[in-house]
Amino acid sequence: MTKADIISEVFDKVGLPKQDAEELVEMILDTIKLTLKEGETVKLSGFGNFVVRQKRSRKGRNPKTGQEIEITPRSVVSFRPSMIFKDHVIETDSATDGAVPAGQPAE
């Protein structure tokens, strides 16, 4: 699914004009990006949390040359899905393709 698909879904389900649906989606995404840039957590109830984490510097290795390099510290964004989200995805996957969720025995 792309951003354009999300805009189309908002257009179809909410009934806003296409331009307004696009502005709404852009506004929501911009708010999330700005909040994360400020180092704050974005909590979406029933969906999950976007969290900014700090990674420390560490040693790495260039796969081509094998030379050791220093990887600089940086911020990364991680997503932690809520239990409701996880249950929905696992329920949907197992119902559609017969997959067994991790950690559960096959029958």
CA(first)-CA(last) distance: 32 Å
Radius of gyration: 20 Å
Q: Helix and strand succession? A: HHEEEEEH
Strand-residue proportion: 25-35%
How many separate domains make up the residues?
2
CATH topology of the largest domain: HU Protein, Chain A
Tell me the number of strands.
Answer: 5
Form type: elongated
Can you tell me the residue ranges where pLDDT is under 50 for at least 5 consecutive residues? none
Q: Helical stretch count?
A: 3
Per CATH, the architecture of the largest domain is: Irregular
Quick overview of this protein structure:
The chain has about 110 residues and is α+β, with helices and mostly antiparallel strands. It is built from three helices and five strands, in the order H-H-E-E-E-E-E-H.
What attributes characterize this protein structure?
single chain, alpha+beta, three-stranded antiparallel β-sheet, HU Protein, Chain A, 5 strands, 107 residues, two-stranded antiparallel ribbon, 2 domains, 3 helices
